[in-house]
Amino acid sequence: MNGTELLAERFQEHRGHLRAVAYRMLGSLGEAEEAVEETWLELSRSDPGEIPDPGGRLVISVGRVCLDRLRARAARRADPSADAHVPDPVITPLSPADPEQEVLYADAVGLALLVALEELDPAERLAFVLHDMFAVPFDDIAPIVERPPAAARQLAGRARRRVREAAPAAEPDLDRQREVLGAFLAAARAGDVEALVAVLHPDVVLRADSGAPASKVHGARAVAEQALQFRQFADCARLALVNGEVGIVNLPEGRPLAVAGVTVTEGRIAALHVLADPARLARLDLPGTAH
């Protein structure tokens, strides 16, 4: 095996980890895969003998690629609907998951956290994701953001505070999450707006991204009334893990209509992130779901 073949083999060993980094940086499964491919193209032009730590270098390289992509998104900030954008969900069954997918959703990042990451400056997001989620030292992050290590540390600290303020703390017990979602679906099927309000946090936020301009709704009663508009689809709702939390997949006649990531806080639903864009849904893997 020559040096290039050995390098390619090592890259494949790290591909799943790199895709996990890129997904958390970009919030898009397709873009994450593209970023990994771009990283490989850059690496393949290098001398394999100059890469003593391929794993560490690869994480830095994919981080740099993702930072460039985030900066290129600047124009999207001017779009009023960007605030309601829903990142690509990672959907897995409630039963034990496919080992090949484990690296992507190990220590899963909930959609509420990914949405909070969307609000960060690109350099803040990179410093937070690489350091707080993947333990990359600030000495290695600093050259990517073109700042001293102390400034990179400040970027991560600022991002950490903003994320903590924006993303509600999720209920860690999956059984409790499932119980709350069961009550939500039962109330929706019954058309009981008061029961819906009771299971929603007073400050709940619903983000709905259907391919047209995305929308955002605040408050328990407003979200309950919005949910009732789609009560006819409640019977085809199935539970699955959406980014590591119990969520909802709507599959009328076996065709995906919507995926909802749900954040449960203090026994009530604090956030709903609904993806109903047909083009984006068609690109998702939808494993078996539970009634």
What's the topology here?
Elements: H1 3-26, H2 29-44, H3 54-72, E1 91-92, H4 102-105, H5 111-118, H6 122-133, H7 138-145, H8 149-166, H9 174-190, H10 193-199, E2 200-209, E3 215-218, H11 220-228, E4 237-242, E5 245-250, E6 258-265, E7 268-275, H12 278-281
Parallel strand pairs: 2-7
Antiparallel strand pairs: 1-4, 2-3, 4-5, 5-6, 6-7
Helix pairs in contact: 1-2, 1-3, 2-3, 3-6, 3-7, 5-8, 6-8, 7-8, 9-10, 10-11
As a percent range, the share of helical residues equals: 40-55%
Nearest-integer average pLDDT = 86
> Terminal Cα separation, in Å?
50 Å
What is the helix tally?
Answer: 12
Number of strands: 7
List keywords for this structure.
Butyryl-CoA Dehydrogenase, subunit A, domain 3, about 50% helix, about 290 residues, Nuclear Transport Factor 2, Chain: A, alpha+beta, 7 strands, 2 domains
Structural notes for this entry:
Helix content is 50%, strand content 15%. The longest helix has 24 residues, at 3-26. The termini are far apart. It has 291 residues and is an alpha+beta fold.
Describe the structure concisely for a colleague.
With 291 residues, the protein is of the alpha+beta class. The chain contains twelve helices and seven strands. The chain has two domains: 137 residues, Up-down Bundle (Butyryl-CoA Dehydrogenase, subunit A, domain 3); 108 residues, Nuclear Transport Factor 2, Chain: A (Roll), CATH 3.10.450.50.
